[in-house]
Amino acid sequence: MRKAYVAGNWKMNCTIQEATDLAKELVKGLASDANADVAVIPSFLQIAAVKEVVKGTAVKLGAQDVYFENNGAFTGEISTAMLKDAGVEFALVGHSERRHVIGETDAIIRKKLDALLAADLEVILCVGELLSERESGDTEKVLDTQVKAGITGLSSAQLEKVTIAYEPVWAIGTGKVASTEQAQSAHKYIRELVASMFTQEDADKMRIQYGGSVKPDNAKDLLAQPDVDGALVGGAALKADSFLGIIAGA
Ligand code: PGA
Description:
Elements (H helix, E strand, L loop, with lengths): L3 E6 L6 H14 L6 E6 L2 H11 L4 E5 L16 H6 L4 E4 L2 H7 L3 H13 L3 E6 L3 H5 L3 H13 L4 H4 L2 E5 L13 H18 L2 H6 L2 E4 L4 H8 L6 E4 L6 H9 L2
Parallel strand pairs: 1-2, 1-8, 2-3, 3-4, 4-5, 5-6, 6-7, 7-8
Helix pairs in contact: 1-2, 1-12, 5-7, 7-9, 11-12
The protein binds 2-phosphoglycolic acid.
């Protein structure tokens, strides 16, 4: 049985004070017997302050992105060494906003994933189809391409450090959540794909989060699906009570 993994992606929101307050409320409200691993993913500028709040607690700290070079003349970028220095345990790669707003390719995303693993950091690899791709029946084709580009050739030990987040782009920040059947079917497809690329055991160990308009009132049903092992939460992670409500659904 895979333990649920619920991560809150705060995106480009919060002042340092707001992020600190949110982290404090979360730490205070988190039941010691919570049925899930819990993580927060503030923006780079809030990481140091949030680290002070979550250190020594069960709440993991992640970053929303990373650059794949170690150091040097890469103005505006943040390296894995910098993330480690700040106490970060993992980073997202391939979030749909980076793919579709910033224009990141599968090749760039893969370089970032490799850099994180080389630095012994964990990864949440985000994948998911656009509405037009779902409507034209290409969901599985898109997942196939993105997952293969993301993890082909990793060792089983490296794969253990990777969580995949299935985030249908049409469900992110839109209030239009995938149905439990749509989520389960995509997650099952991803797990079978991972099993075909690695081993069944590797695939069974992997946690696959669902993301896209997860709220306290839909989390329980989504998380009850056999292949949905957690949630990557955006909007509803910006209020401690709604994020805690989602964790309670695990
Ligand atoms: P949302 O965002 O929960 O606001 O839809 C999810 C995400 O982008 O990770």
